[in-house]
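Hello K.,

You asked for the raw outputs rather than the summary table, so here they are, unedited. I folded two proteins back to back in the same session to keep the settings identical. This is the first:
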Amino acid sequence: MKRILIIEDDTALQSGLCRALKNDDYDTVGAENLRIAKDMLSSQSFSLVLLDVNLPDGNGFDFLPYIKKEHAVPVIMLTANDLESDIVAGLESGADDYITKPFSLAVLRARVNTQLRKAVTKNDSNKFICDGFRFDFDNMEFFADDVPVELSKTEQKLLRILTSNAGITLSRDKLVDRIWTDGCEYVDENALSVTIKRLRDKLGAKNYIKTVYGIGYMWGSNQ
């Protein structure tokens, strides 16, 4: 399921946008300031960001390059400013689209759908960028702090499942079922634990690949 982050300090508008855009294919999450948004981007995976320009702890134009560089997701700017100079500044700073308030929800939905379709076409869904990690699953290229890391097929499969569900706890049973799907009648109960340990060690990701005791594992923030 695609996830949309809505960075908007007007809580009523943010809540309304979350409800309007959420459906069977899209999940929505809100953040009322840049600090919260940065924490969410570091700990979860998003397919699209709606970014307000005027926020209580900063300017969306200044935050935009960080999103594009560190997380490589499409961004639609939201603002009350309809000056041509503001629109040009947003687009030249890397925004994928720009919509001014007040706006039609139908138009916003259409623009959101357009950006998400483009992202799939560019295979962005097969790439993951978080802090110092860069994973390109199509080309099987994996970097931790710009250092290339060699991963086995099983480790790649596990990493892809974890990062595509960042912030979500996955049970051991679900991970085993999704990783070892070759019809094996028996999988050693330690196989998942061993693969998790190897992946953590190779990536130096012990603070990101988290054990949720009694349940399973998740890709989380460095906390």
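The second followed immediately with the same parameters:
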Amino acid sequence: MPVKSPAPNWLEPHLPVCEAIVALFAPLAEVAVHDIRRDRIVGIWNPISGRKIGGRSLIEELPPYSEDARVIGPYPKVLADGRAITSVSVVLHNAKGVARGLLCINFDRSPFDATIDLLVRFAAPVEDRPAELFDKDWREQILLVVDEECRSRSLRRDRLTREQRLDLVRALDERGLFSTRNAAAHAGRALGVSRTTIYALLKEARS
């Protein structure tokens, strides 16, 4: 049972919020409500920390906060099994405006940390391309120039405007990449347009 019945009066209005948070973020989020005066847990949902109702709140582990504070954090914590979590606490007040409880949301971010670590490994810098293998490959050169220009200008290749395509064609021409037969057709595939369009852009770029 998430809450020891009956719930304290100051907690009752917040129960739907506690249930909604866990319903949305389960199984990664734990919601725990602490009674500040008694230093006890009076409600807990999806207890990933292994804590229980009636257990000590250990409020002294929280970052320092003032009586009139509303939100504390986010701040980092670690579960007993080593999982890293991010926590944020909301100070709950009674009808007289006196702080009575803390609603703590503990979010297990370990699955995301593992994914980020994997992506970082794949995104690690690679060695430079061997010049003897690629410098004479005009098809590869066209693709690389288009990719580098799009990245440097934060452009999406499937959403290029005519002016942006014109700039890219100009960049290809400046590198002498249209001197080879079929280069226009290959550039058209790289930019998502026809060979005829590439010729028209190239004529405009040279004029």
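The chain has a mean pLDDT of 85.

Happy to rerun anything if the numbers look odd on your end.

Regards,
P.
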